[in-house]
Design brief:
- The relative contact order is 0.16.
- The chain has about 230 residues and is of the alpha+beta class.
- The protein has helices at about 5, 15, 95-120, 150-170; strands spanning about 20-35, 35-40, 60, 65-70, 75-80, 90-95, 125, 135, 175, 185, 190-195, 205-215, 220-230.
- Strand 10 (about 185) and strand 11 form a beta hairpin.
- It folds into two domains: about 15-95, Elongation Factor Tu (Ef-tu), domain 3, CATH 2.40.30.130; about 100-230, 2-Layer Sandwich (Threonyl-tRNA Synthetase, Chain A, domain 2).
- Bound molecules: zinc ion (ZN).
- Zinc ion (ZN) binds near residues 106, 185, 195, 197 and 199.
- This is Ser-tRNA(Ala) deacylase AlaX (Editing enzyme).
- InterPro entries: Alanyl-tRNA_Editing_Enzymes (IPR051335), Thr/Ala-tRNA-synth_IIc_edit (IPR018163), Transl_B-barrel_sf (IPR009000), tRNA_SAD (IPR012947).
Amino acid sequence: MTISDVGPSQDQAYYRDTYLFESPAQVVAAGQDDDGAWVAVSPNIFHPKGGGQPSDEGTVNGVPVVPSRTEEGLVVLSGDGLALDEGAEVVCAIDETLRKRHAALHTAGHVLGHLGEARGWQSAGHSHYPGQARLDFSPEGLESELATPELRDAVRAELQEAFDAVLARGGAVTATTDDSGHRTVTIEGVNAEPCGGTHVSDLSQLKDVRVLELKVKRGALKVRYEAEHA
Ligand SMILES: [Zn+2]
């Protein structure tokens, strides 16, 4: 069996439930490549790196694995010492603290992106990595608004205030996937965006959200931020 044969049959459980940290699963494909042994399991609880969000970390039957996504869209788990055949029943587990941290940062990134766009800013990129989370916007037309450190800090404070207001209102975070596999993430009262990442299930699960700094660097307005899972 080739990867493209099993791609559609892998159930991406992490799309439905951010808080599924451990699950039994079945090996639907297994093989060896230059990096060693790999398996694909279903249901799959591992988020592979992508969309600015880092990979989950975790284990299959206690063996540490690194998830990645193939060109065909299959999530495969690579690990030294994996020796599993197709059809094997396994237990998968992910690092709960890391998953929740990634989900908090990612969800906060959606909200901050919306707040920037509400000011008329054009999104130009994002990273949701812990310790270096930031959104990029096009700086065109913002020269006077952001000319000095004082002005940039005033805008930062406005973004923080707007973010705090969103959190005070609260809102559910839900995801739907259509028949062709396109996933849309909706934050109640904020926006709906196509996204393949993991998110908190309600804005009340975010805490310590801080807009840290605005900087214009290498042709982009970079807005750094921080967020924790409650
Ligand atoms: Zn997302």
